[in-house]
Write a structure and sequence with these properties.
Layout (H helix, E strand, L loop, with lengths): L16 E4 L7 H7 L5 E4 L5 H9 L7 E3 L8 H13 L4 E6 L1 H14 L3 E5 L10 E6 L2 E6 L7 E4 L9 H19 L6 H23 L4 H20 L4 H13 L3 H16 L4 H11 L4 H11 L16 H8 L12 H13 L9
Parallel strand pairs: 1-8, 2-3, 2-4, 4-5, 5-8
Antiparallel strand pairs: 6-7
Helix pairs in contact: 3-4, 5-6, 5-7, 5-9, 6-7, 6-10, 8-9, 8-12, 9-11, 9-13, 10-11, 12-13
This protein binds nicotinamide-adenine-dinucleotide (NAD).
Nicotinamide-adenine-dinucleotide (NAD) binds next to helix 4, strand 6, helix 5 and helix 9.
Length: 361
Protein backbone atom coordinates (compact mmCIF):
# COMPACT_ATOMS: atom_id res chain seq x y z
CA UNK A 1 0.00 0.00 0.00
CA UNK A 2 3.05 2.27 0.13
CA UNK A 3 2.29 3.88 -3.24
CA UNK A 4 -1.28 4.94 -2.54
CA UNK A 5 -2.06 7.60 0.01
CA UNK A 6 -5.82 7.57 0.50
CA UNK A 7 -5.49 9.73 3.62
CA UNK A 8 -6.29 13.13 2.13
CA UNK A 9 -6.69 14.23 -1.50
CA UNK A 10 -8.81 16.26 -3.91
CA UNK A 11 -10.09 14.72 -7.15
CA UNK A 12 -11.79 16.67 -9.95
CA UNK A 13 -13.47 14.60 -12.66
CA UNK A 14 -13.70 16.42 -16.00
CA UNK A 15 -16.96 16.42 -17.97
CA UNK A 16 -16.08 14.91 -21.32
CA UNK A 17 -17.50 12.06 -23.39
CA UNK A 18 -14.95 9.62 -24.84
CA UNK A 19 -15.63 7.21 -27.71
CA UNK A 20 -12.73 4.82 -28.32
CA UNK A 21 -12.36 2.31 -31.14
CA UNK A 22 -11.39 1.65 -34.75
CA UNK A 23 -13.74 3.24 -37.29
CA UNK A 24 -15.60 5.31 -34.72
CA UNK A 25 -14.96 8.55 -36.65
CA UNK A 26 -18.06 7.46 -38.63
CA UNK A 27 -20.12 8.28 -35.52
CA UNK A 28 -19.09 11.96 -35.72
CA UNK A 29 -22.38 13.15 -37.33
CA UNK A 30 -24.41 11.33 -34.66
CA UNK A 31 -22.31 12.80 -31.85
CA UNK A 32 -22.73 16.24 -33.45
CA UNK A 33 -26.49 15.73 -33.69
CA UNK A 34 -26.60 14.84 -29.99
CA UNK A 35 -24.85 18.14 -29.28
CA UNK A 36 -27.55 19.96 -31.26
CA UNK A 37 -25.16 20.73 -34.09
CA UNK A 38 -26.16 21.02 -37.76
CA UNK A 39 -23.53 23.43 -39.19
CA UNK A 40 -20.08 22.25 -38.08
CA UNK A 41 -16.83 24.05 -38.80
CA UNK A 42 -14.02 21.50 -39.16
CA UNK A 43 -10.52 22.74 -38.29
CA UNK A 44 -7.20 21.10 -39.20
CA UNK A 45 -3.58 21.86 -40.18
CA UNK A 46 -2.91 22.33 -43.93
CA UNK A 47 -1.33 18.83 -44.11
CA UNK A 48 -4.53 17.22 -42.90
CA UNK A 49 -7.01 18.76 -45.31
CA UNK A 50 -7.68 15.32 -46.87
CA UNK A 51 -8.64 13.92 -43.50
CA UNK A 52 -10.91 16.90 -42.83
CA UNK A 53 -12.56 16.34 -46.25
CA UNK A 54 -13.18 12.71 -45.27
CA UNK A 55 -14.86 13.75 -42.00
CA UNK A 56 -16.92 16.39 -43.86
CA UNK A 57 -18.12 13.73 -46.33
CA UNK A 58 -19.69 11.81 -43.42
CA UNK A 59 -22.19 14.67 -43.00
CA UNK A 60 -24.28 13.74 -46.03
CA UNK A 61 -26.97 16.33 -46.71
CA UNK A 62 -25.83 18.89 -44.17
CA UNK A 63 -23.57 21.83 -44.74
CA UNK A 64 -20.00 21.66 -43.39
CA UNK A 65 -17.09 24.07 -43.72
CA UNK A 66 -13.37 23.47 -43.31
CA UNK A 67 -10.72 25.88 -42.00
CA UNK A 68 -7.31 24.30 -42.66
CA UNK A 69 -4.81 26.87 -41.36
CA UNK A 70 -4.27 25.59 -37.81
CA UNK A 71 -0.65 26.02 -36.66
CA UNK A 72 1.57 25.06 -33.72
CA UNK A 73 1.15 27.13 -30.51
CA UNK A 74 -2.23 28.60 -31.57
CA UNK A 75 -1.12 31.95 -33.06
CA UNK A 76 -3.66 34.75 -32.57
CA UNK A 77 -3.73 35.82 -36.24
CA UNK A 78 -4.88 32.33 -37.28
CA UNK A 79 -7.52 32.28 -34.55
CA UNK A 80 -8.90 35.66 -35.62
CA UNK A 81 -9.23 34.52 -39.26
CA UNK A 82 -10.93 31.30 -38.16
CA UNK A 83 -13.26 33.31 -35.92
CA UNK A 84 -14.41 35.36 -38.92
CA UNK A 85 -15.08 32.18 -40.91
CA UNK A 86 -17.00 30.60 -37.99
CA UNK A 87 -19.23 33.71 -37.82
CA UNK A 88 -19.68 33.98 -41.60
CA UNK A 89 -20.83 30.38 -41.98
CA UNK A 90 -22.88 30.53 -38.74
CA UNK A 91 -21.14 27.45 -37.38
CA UNK A 92 -22.95 25.86 -34.46
CA UNK A 93 -20.14 23.50 -33.41
CA UNK A 94 -16.43 22.91 -33.94
CA UNK A 95 -14.76 19.69 -35.02
CA UNK A 96 -10.98 19.43 -34.64
CA UNK A 97 -9.23 16.77 -36.71
CA UNK A 98 -5.52 16.47 -35.97
CA UNK A 99 -2.94 16.92 -33.24
CA UNK A 100 -2.53 19.58 -30.57
CA UNK A 101 -2.39 22.35 -33.19
CA UNK A 102 -5.87 21.66 -34.65
CA UNK A 103 -7.33 20.98 -31.22
CA UNK A 104 -5.74 24.19 -29.86
CA UNK A 105 -7.46 26.23 -32.58
CA UNK A 106 -10.87 24.68 -31.85
CA UNK A 107 -10.34 25.47 -28.16
CA UNK A 108 -9.46 29.10 -28.96
CA UNK A 109 -12.66 29.38 -31.02
CA UNK A 110 -14.78 27.72 -28.33
CA UNK A 111 -13.41 30.15 -25.76
CA UNK A 112 -14.69 33.10 -27.81
CA UNK A 113 -17.94 31.68 -29.17
CA UNK A 114 -19.12 29.18 -26.55
CA UNK A 115 -19.60 26.59 -29.33
CA UNK A 116 -19.38 22.90 -28.41
CA UNK A 117 -16.40 20.90 -29.67
CA UNK A 118 -15.76 17.40 -30.94
CA UNK A 119 -12.09 16.37 -31.13
CA UNK A 120 -10.69 13.59 -33.32
CA UNK A 121 -7.04 13.37 -32.22
CA UNK A 122 -4.37 12.02 -34.58
CA UNK A 123 -1.27 12.36 -32.33
CA UNK A 124 -0.55 11.43 -28.70
CA UNK A 125 -0.22 15.00 -27.31
CA UNK A 126 -3.39 14.73 -25.17
CA UNK A 127 -4.80 18.25 -25.55
CA UNK A 128 -8.27 16.87 -26.39
CA UNK A 129 -8.92 15.89 -22.75
CA UNK A 130 -7.51 18.96 -21.02
CA UNK A 131 -9.15 22.25 -19.98
CA UNK A 132 -5.86 23.97 -20.92
CA UNK A 133 -5.23 26.42 -23.73
CA UNK A 134 -1.92 27.95 -24.79
CA UNK A 135 -2.11 30.87 -27.24
CA UNK A 136 0.63 32.94 -28.86
CA UNK A 137 0.39 36.66 -29.48
CA UNK A 138 3.26 39.07 -30.25
CA UNK A 139 5.76 36.23 -29.76
CA UNK A 140 4.52 35.42 -26.25
CA UNK A 141 2.75 32.17 -25.37
CA UNK A 142 0.20 32.36 -22.56
CA UNK A 143 -1.39 29.30 -21.03
CA UNK A 144 -4.50 29.09 -18.91
CA UNK A 145 -6.95 26.57 -17.53
CA UNK A 146 -10.70 26.93 -18.05
CA UNK A 147 -13.45 24.38 -18.53
CA UNK A 148 -14.72 26.61 -21.37
CA UNK A 149 -12.11 25.03 -23.68
CA UNK A 150 -12.62 21.36 -22.78
CA UNK A 151 -14.06 19.48 -25.81
CA UNK A 152 -17.52 18.02 -25.09
CA UNK A 153 -16.72 14.81 -27.00
CA UNK A 154 -13.54 13.04 -28.07
CA UNK A 155 -13.47 10.30 -30.69
CA UNK A 156 -10.33 8.16 -30.58
CA UNK A 157 -10.21 6.28 -33.87
CA UNK A 158 -6.94 4.39 -34.24
CA UNK A 159 -7.25 4.49 -38.04
CA UNK A 160 -6.59 8.25 -37.93
CA UNK A 161 -3.18 7.67 -36.34
CA UNK A 162 -1.78 5.12 -38.81
CA UNK A 163 -0.18 7.83 -40.98
CA UNK A 164 1.62 9.53 -38.08
CA UNK A 165 5.31 9.07 -39.02
CA UNK A 166 7.26 6.73 -36.69
CA UNK A 167 9.60 9.48 -35.49
CA UNK A 168 6.71 11.83 -34.65
CA UNK A 169 4.91 8.94 -32.95
CA UNK A 170 7.95 8.38 -30.73
CA UNK A 171 8.40 11.99 -29.66
CA UNK A 172 4.65 12.58 -29.31
CA UNK A 173 4.40 9.41 -27.18
CA UNK A 174 7.27 10.50 -24.92
CA UNK A 175 5.58 13.88 -24.58
CA UNK A 176 2.48 12.02 -23.34
CA UNK A 177 4.56 9.93 -20.91
CA UNK A 178 5.94 13.18 -19.47
CA UNK A 179 2.39 14.22 -18.47
CA UNK A 180 1.90 10.97 -16.55
CA UNK A 181 5.35 11.06 -14.94
CA UNK A 182 4.72 14.52 -13.52
CA UNK A 183 1.20 13.55 -12.43
CA UNK A 184 2.76 10.91 -10.16
CA UNK A 185 4.67 13.51 -8.14
CA UNK A 186 2.27 16.42 -8.69
CA UNK A 187 1.26 18.57 -5.76
CA UNK A 188 -2.33 17.51 -6.68
CA UNK A 189 -1.52 13.78 -7.07
CA UNK A 190 -4.40 11.54 -6.05
CA UNK A 191 -5.02 7.78 -6.22
CA UNK A 192 -7.18 7.98 -9.37
CA UNK A 193 -4.80 9.97 -11.58
CA UNK A 194 -1.87 7.93 -10.24
CA UNK A 195 -3.52 4.71 -11.45
CA UNK A 196 -4.13 6.31 -14.84
CA UNK A 197 -0.56 7.62 -14.96
CA UNK A 198 1.04 4.26 -14.28
CA UNK A 199 -1.21 2.51 -16.83
CA UNK A 200 -0.59 5.25 -19.38
CA UNK A 201 3.21 5.00 -19.07
CA UNK A 202 3.07 1.20 -19.31
CA UNK A 203 0.81 1.22 -22.39
CA UNK A 204 2.95 3.76 -24.28
CA UNK A 205 6.28 2.21 -23.23
CA UNK A 206 5.13 -1.14 -24.64
CA UNK A 207 3.52 0.26 -27.79
CA UNK A 208 6.04 2.85 -29.02
CA UNK A 209 8.92 0.44 -29.85
CA UNK A 210 6.39 -1.77 -31.69
CA UNK A 211 5.18 1.25 -33.68
CA UNK A 212 8.77 2.02 -34.65
CA UNK A 213 9.16 -1.55 -35.95
CA UNK A 214 5.75 -1.67 -37.60
CA UNK A 215 4.05 1.74 -37.98
CA UNK A 216 0.93 0.13 -39.48
CA UNK A 217 0.25 -2.11 -36.46
CA UNK A 218 -3.35 -1.48 -35.36
CA UNK A 219 -2.70 -3.23 -32.08
CA UNK A 220 0.35 -1.15 -31.13
CA UNK A 221 -1.36 2.04 -32.33
CA UNK A 222 -4.47 1.27 -30.25
CA UNK A 223 -2.38 0.72 -27.13
CA UNK A 224 -0.48 3.94 -27.76
CA UNK A 225 -3.73 5.86 -28.23
CA UNK A 226 -5.17 4.34 -25.06
CA UNK A 227 -1.99 5.39 -23.19
CA UNK A 228 -2.20 8.87 -24.70
CA UNK A 229 -5.78 9.25 -23.46
CA UNK A 230 -4.75 8.23 -19.93
CA UNK A 231 -1.69 10.51 -19.93
CA UNK A 232 -3.68 13.42 -21.37
CA UNK A 233 -6.31 12.93 -18.68
CA UNK A 234 -3.55 13.21 -16.06
CA UNK A 235 -2.38 16.49 -17.64
CA UNK A 236 -5.95 17.78 -17.56
CA UNK A 237 -6.55 16.76 -13.95
CA UNK A 238 -3.46 17.72 -11.92
CA UNK A 239 -0.76 20.39 -12.00
CA UNK A 240 2.51 19.73 -13.80
CA UNK A 241 5.97 20.37 -12.30
CA UNK A 242 9.62 21.09 -13.14
CA UNK A 243 9.82 19.09 -16.38
CA UNK A 244 7.00 21.05 -18.03
CA UNK A 245 8.50 24.32 -16.79
CA UNK A 246 11.94 23.42 -18.21
CA UNK A 247 10.45 22.44 -21.59
CA UNK A 248 8.34 25.61 -21.68
CA UNK A 249 11.45 27.74 -21.05
CA UNK A 250 13.65 25.88 -23.56
CA UNK A 251 10.98 25.82 -26.28
CA UNK A 252 9.97 29.45 -25.80
CA UNK A 253 13.47 30.92 -25.43
CA UNK A 254 15.37 28.97 -28.08
CA UNK A 255 12.50 27.98 -30.38
CA UNK A 256 13.26 24.28 -29.89
CA UNK A 257 10.84 21.64 -31.21
CA UNK A 258 8.21 20.92 -28.54
CA UNK A 259 8.07 17.10 -28.54
CA UNK A 260 11.85 16.61 -29.07
CA UNK A 261 12.60 18.83 -26.08
CA UNK A 262 10.28 16.72 -23.90
CA UNK A 263 11.89 13.52 -25.18
CA UNK A 264 15.43 14.72 -24.34
CA UNK A 265 14.71 16.31 -20.95
CA UNK A 266 12.41 13.74 -19.34
CA UNK A 267 14.99 11.27 -17.96
CA UNK A 268 17.20 14.13 -16.73
CA UNK A 269 14.39 15.85 -14.84
CA UNK A 270 13.18 12.56 -13.37
CA UNK A 271 16.71 11.82 -12.09
CA UNK A 272 16.76 15.36 -10.63
CA UNK A 273 13.54 14.67 -8.69
CA UNK A 274 14.45 11.13 -7.63
CA UNK A 275 15.37 11.68 -3.98
CA UNK A 276 12.36 13.95 -3.36
CA UNK A 277 9.70 11.67 -4.86
CA UNK A 278 10.62 8.05 -4.09
CA UNK A 279 7.05 6.65 -4.37
CA UNK A 280 6.58 8.20 -7.81
CA UNK A 281 9.97 6.82 -8.90
CA UNK A 282 8.96 3.30 -7.92
CA UNK A 283 5.73 3.55 -9.88
CA UNK A 284 7.45 4.94 -12.99
CA UNK A 285 10.07 2.17 -12.81
CA UNK A 286 7.35 -0.45 -12.36
CA UNK A 287 5.42 0.87 -15.36
CA UNK A 288 8.58 0.72 -17.47
CA UNK A 289 9.70 -2.67 -16.14
CA UNK A 290 13.02 -1.02 -15.23
CA UNK A 291 15.29 -0.98 -12.17
CA UNK A 292 14.89 2.74 -11.75
CA UNK A 293 12.79 5.46 -13.33
CA UNK A 294 15.45 7.58 -15.04
CA UNK A 295 17.51 4.76 -16.58
CA UNK A 296 14.23 3.18 -17.75
CA UNK A 297 13.18 6.44 -19.43
CA UNK A 298 16.58 6.96 -20.98
CA UNK A 299 16.65 3.39 -22.30
CA UNK A 300 13.17 3.87 -23.81
CA UNK A 301 14.23 7.14 -25.50
CA UNK A 302 17.36 5.42 -26.89
CA UNK A 303 15.28 2.50 -28.24
CA UNK A 304 13.02 5.01 -29.97
CA UNK A 305 16.00 6.74 -31.66
CA UNK A 306 14.81 10.18 -30.59
CA UNK A 307 17.41 12.98 -30.24
CA UNK A 308 19.57 12.39 -27.17
CA UNK A 309 20.94 15.88 -26.48
CA UNK A 310 19.91 19.53 -26.58
CA UNK A 311 23.00 20.15 -28.75
CA UNK A 312 21.47 17.85 -31.39
CA UNK A 313 18.37 20.07 -31.64
CA UNK A 314 20.57 23.18 -31.83
CA UNK A 315 20.19 24.74 -28.43
CA UNK A 316 23.08 27.22 -28.09
CA UNK A 317 25.47 26.13 -25.31
CA UNK A 318 25.82 29.71 -24.07
CA UNK A 319 22.05 29.72 -23.39
CA UNK A 320 22.31 27.24 -20.50
CA UNK A 321 22.86 29.86 -17.78
CA UNK A 322 19.97 32.02 -19.03
CA UNK A 323 17.69 28.96 -19.21
CA UNK A 324 18.57 28.02 -15.61
CA UNK A 325 17.65 31.55 -14.48
CA UNK A 326 14.32 31.46 -16.32
CA UNK A 327 13.45 28.02 -14.92
CA UNK A 328 13.76 29.52 -11.44
CA UNK A 329 11.31 32.35 -12.22
CA UNK A 330 7.66 31.67 -11.35
CA UNK A 331 8.49 28.04 -10.56
CA UNK A 332 5.76 25.40 -10.65
CA UNK A 333 5.09 23.43 -7.45
CA UNK A 334 7.77 20.73 -7.43
CA UNK A 335 8.83 17.92 -5.09
CA UNK A 336 12.44 19.20 -5.00
CA UNK A 337 13.15 22.90 -4.55
CA UNK A 338 15.26 23.84 -7.58
CA UNK A 339 18.39 25.98 -7.28
CA UNK A 340 20.56 27.61 -9.93
CA UNK A 341 23.63 25.36 -9.67
CA UNK A 342 21.76 22.05 -9.79
CA UNK A 343 19.46 23.15 -12.64
CA UNK A 344 22.45 24.40 -14.60
CA UNK A 345 24.29 21.12 -14.07
CA UNK A 346 21.22 19.15 -15.20
CA UNK A 347 20.86 21.30 -18.35
CA UNK A 348 24.58 20.85 -19.06
CA UNK A 349 24.17 17.05 -18.94
CA UNK A 350 21.11 17.24 -21.18
CA UNK A 351 22.96 19.50 -23.61
CA UNK A 352 25.84 17.02 -23.88
CA UNK A 353 23.61 13.95 -23.84
CA UNK A 354 25.48 12.36 -20.93
CA UNK A 355 23.70 9.99 -18.55
CA UNK A 356 21.06 11.48 -16.21
CA UNK A 357 22.28 11.69 -12.63
CA UNK A 358 20.24 11.55 -9.47
CA UNK A 359 21.92 14.46 -7.63
CA UNK A 360 22.37 14.13 -3.90
CA UNK A 361 19.79 16.51 -2.36
P1 LIG B 1 0.73 19.06 -34.24
O1 LIG B 1 -0.71 19.04 -34.03
O2 LIG B 1 1.37 20.39 -34.54
O3 LIG B 1 1.09 18.03 -35.39
C1 LIG B 1 2.46 17.92 -35.84
C2 LIG B 1 2.48 17.66 -37.34
O4 LIG B 1 2.01 16.33 -37.58
C3 LIG B 1 1.55 18.58 -38.15
O5 LIG B 1 2.20 18.91 -39.35
C4 LIG B 1 0.33 17.70 -38.41
O6 LIG B 1 -0.35 18.06 -39.59
C5 LIG B 1 0.98 16.34 -38.52
N1 LIG B 1 0.10 15.23 -38.16
C6 LIG B 1 -0.70 15.15 -37.07
N2 LIG B 1 -1.31 13.96 -37.04
C7 LIG B 1 -0.90 13.26 -38.12
C8 LIG B 1 -1.18 11.97 -38.63
N3 LIG B 1 -1.97 11.12 -37.98
N4 LIG B 1 -0.57 11.60 -39.78
C9 LIG B 1 0.29 12.43 -40.42
N5 LIG B 1 0.60 13.67 -39.97
C10 LIG B 1 0.01 14.07 -38.83
O7 LIG B 1 1.56 18.41 -33.01
P2 LIG B 1 1.15 17.94 -31.54
O8 LIG B 1 2.42 17.53 -30.89
O9 LIG B 1 0.01 17.00 -31.56
O10 LIG B 1 0.63 19.27 -30.86
C11 LIG B 1 1.52 20.27 -30.45
C12 LIG B 1 0.74 21.49 -30.02
O11 LIG B 1 -0.24 21.11 -29.07
C13 LIG B 1 1.62 22.53 -29.35
O12 LIG B 1 1.13 23.81 -29.73
C14 LIG B 1 1.40 22.26 -27.88
O13 LIG B 1 1.66 23.40 -27.08
C15 LIG B 1 -0.05 21.86 -27.87
N6 LIG B 1 -0.47 21.02 -26.75
C16 LIG B 1 -1.45 21.50 -25.95
C17 LIG B 1 -1.90 20.75 -24.86
C18 LIG B 1 -2.99 21.27 -23.98
O14 LIG B 1 -3.43 20.58 -23.07
N7 LIG B 1 -3.46 22.48 -24.22
C19 LIG B 1 -1.35 19.47 -24.63
C20 LIG B 1 -0.35 19.00 -25.47
C21 LIG B 1 0.09 19.78 -26.54
Amino acid sequence: MEDVSPIRFDYHALPSRVLFGAGRRRETPEVARQLGCTLPLIVCTPEQQVLADAIASLFAGSSTHIFSEAAMHTPWDVTSRALMVAREVRADCLIAVGGGSAIGLAKALALRTGLPQIALPTTYAGSEVTPIIGETQDGEKRTRRTLDVLPEAVIYDVELTLTLPARLSATSGLNAIAHAVEALYSVDANPVTSIMAEQGIAALAAALPEILANPASHDARSHAQYGAWLCGTCLGSVGMALHHKVCHVLGGTFDLPHADTHAIMLAHVVAYQAGAAPHAMRRIARALGADDAWTGLQALAARLHVPQSLAEIRMPHEGIGRAAELVLQETYANPRTPDYQSIRAMLERAWRGTAPQPDPL
